[in-house]
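Entry for the shared binder. Reason: the reviewer on the internal report wants the predicted structure included alongside the sequence.
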Amino acid sequence: MNSIVVGFDGTEPSFVALDWAAQRAARRPTRVEIVTVDALDLFADGVVDVALADAELRVKDIAADAEVTSRSVSGRMPDALARAAAEADLLVIGAHRRRPVRAALTGWRPLRTVSRSAVPVVVVPGDWTDPDGPVLVGVDEDDSSSAAVTLAAAEASDAGVGLTLLHAWQMPVPTMDGSVALLPSPIQEKAAHRRILTRVSEQVLSQHPGLKVDWILARENPSTALLMETRRSSLLVLGTHRRGLMAGAFLGSVGQDALVESRIPVCVVPTTSTSE
């Protein structure tokens, strides 16, 4: 059975996150656990149990067959939530798009949560309106997006929608050989990047033969290309590099831009994730 942990703090974005998780749970057998951290700091005394019970009912209204539970844990955010979700397939949180400081007041800043989690994290913007469209996944030149592609293909197949592979590239800086500048060929560079998408597309179709797979090769800044395509997509999936001690070092500018700007849910998949 698939397992989802939803971080809940009583704010509007956390209710939207519940709705997203419930819609996903309605498609497959799923155990949904609603987790609040240091509930007495978030809710008035005596309201915690009522708030969690209402949250459970909200999920059950959408996913009647889901196994839904809730609990309150103690600790500091986001580490306490990451620990609570350590055995889950997915961690889901809501966020105020373009207003990260409001989420930060209770420790739910998306980048911090993503950086602490060992499992894929879906960040649902508070103004999400359930758009239709394919699942969109960013394809990198290295293996950092492999787990993201695997998860994105499974999500698209399960939801009955298509999958869009997007790879963005830019011309490298010319190198110098003595006094002569070595200029790379745009035609050769484009062909090399096209081969990346062709290879990934073939791998996806070998695992999901019936899945509709499209790909986009964009000579563009990756953040710009991905955010433009989110207008036609239902979910954006990104991989991480897991490099460095700072959150931004492994997520990169593309992921940070997406968490702030995306109007659709963003799923960040650690390179070590094996979720399907």
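Summary line for the report: DSSP finds ten helices and twelve strands in the chain.
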